[in-house]
Amino acid sequence: MEKNITVIKGDGIGPEIVDEAIKVLDAVAKKYNHTFIYTDILMGGASIDVHGVPLTDEAIEIAKKSDAVLLGSIGGDTTTSPWYQLEPALRPEAGLLKMRKALNLFANLRPAYLYDELKGACPLKEEITQGGFDMMIMRELTGGLYFGKRETKEVNGELVAHDNLEYSESEIRRIAKRGFDIAMKRQKKVVSVDKANVLDSSRLWRKIVNEVAKDYPEVELEHMLVDNCAMQLVKNPQQFDVILTENMFGDILSDEASMITGSIGMLSSASLRDDQFGMYEPSHGSAPDIAGKNIANPIATILSAAMMLRYSFDMDKEASAVEKAIQKVLKDGYRTVDIMSDGQKEVSCSVMGNLIVERL
Ligand code: IPM
Ligand code: MG
Q1: Quick one: CA dihedral 48, 52, 55, 61, positive or negative?
Q2: pLDDT exceeds 90 at position 247
Q3: Distance of CA 72 to the CA centre of its chain
């Protein structure tokens, strides 16, 4: 098969980790007789430096015409980088949000899985993690607080800021359906997370999720308040299969879930719309403090590329082969510094990429 992939290397460690993912994709292409054609576009700080804006319309058009987008990471140090002297709409993150919205990528899948080999790097007690865990966080990605009206204005001599949290029935319904569809392919359990004891948007969320659930009688549905969910994630992560939640709660809970897998450097993500098109990126940030040192963990990005093979290109066996190669590398004792533990072999970002390619 021939596929066109838009590549956004981005900022910080982005270029290093994307290079490793492309190495792996090239190896997949060779082994399984595919052709991947890459087109680079700029987004985030890299785009600000060249174009003065974090994402141009031309870049969006290139992404739209491709079969999928592979993204590294964007953004810089928010206290020292000049990008953060700009008004909020011109900062790196605004480019990412604009891309998500322009491509209508409303469904964000963030799998959090505890590898046996990384149990030692998990900060939870062994008695909690001995059975492992395997969950999929389904985060709504184009609504809620991220895209509501926001404003800072002076009222009675002081500044007042507001951010609007809005969800429509249709926005909730489409992500809920996606969540239940994914649950049908997994353990058939959905925990829908909201703050229905306080927020109207959450009460609507719960109502629509209950309606959608009627079409999925085999799926067990539980509603959980977000504060309780944050607690349950560290108390008993094994109870979760699919966590279905809105944009801001999903942002926060997915960072928490990633940390209990041992390192945020392991968590991949896919952002999808109704068809097979998607954008694939690690859940972690651009880590400007370690950029250019060749020590970043490329596994989250490589796992994201595997998700691209599976969800956008229908290449299941290729995706599994990449996932197995990663597991093998871990089993063989190779670790980047973020997941390093006693008795293992520490390797650089590029060597980790090479080792995964070898095992393919
Ligand atoms: C993420 C990131 C982004 C988000 C930032 C960079 C805007 O934290 O993908 O989780 O909040 O969605
Ligand atoms: Mg986040």
Answers
A1: negative
A2: yes
A3: 11
Contact 173, 280 (CB under 8 A): no
**Consecutive H or E run containing 243:** strand 242-245
The neighbouring-strand residues paired with 222 are 191
Q: What is the pLDDT of residues 80-131, one digit of tens each?
A: 999 999 999 999 999 999 999 999 999 999 999 999 888 888 899 999 998 9
> Which residues are designated catalytic?
146, 195, 227, 251, 255
What is the rounded distance in angstroms from the CA atom of residue 198 to the CA atom of residue 201? 9
CA of 72 to the centre of ligand 2 (A): 14
pLDDT digits (tens, 9 = 90+) for 29-47: 999 999 999 999 999 999 9
Q: What tokens appear for 223 in the block? A: 């509603």
Of all ligands present, the nearest one to the C-alpha of 94 is 1
Which ligand 1 atom sits nearest the alpha carbon of residue 251? 10
Pocket test for ligand 1, best of 73, 142, 251, 252 (most atoms within 8 A of CB): 251
In contact, 201 and 246? CB cutoff 8 Å: yes
Residue 184, φ and ψ in degrees, nearest 5: -60, -30
Of all atoms in ligand 1, which is nearest to the CA of residue 100? 12
Q: How far apart are CA 356 and CA 162, in angstroms?
A: 47
For residue 76, give every residue at least 6 positions away whose Cβ sits within 8 Å of its Cβ, in sequence order, or none: 11, 12, 45, 83, 84, 92, 286, 288
CB 251 near ligand 1, within 6 Å: yes
Confidence (pLDDT) at 121: 85
- Does the pLDDT value for residue 327 go beyond 90? yes
Looking at residue 66, the DSSP 8-state letter turns out to be S
Q: Do 34 and 3 touch, CB atoms closer than 8 A?
A: yes
On the CB side of 135, CA atoms within 13 Å amount to 28
Ligand 1 touching residue 93 (CB < 6 A)? yes
Nearest atom in ligand 1 to the alpha carbon of residue 96 is 7
Considering the chain, what is the average pLDDT of its residues? Answer: 97
Q: Which residue has the tokens 């607690």?
A: 231
Neighbour tally for 85: CB within 10 Å? 8
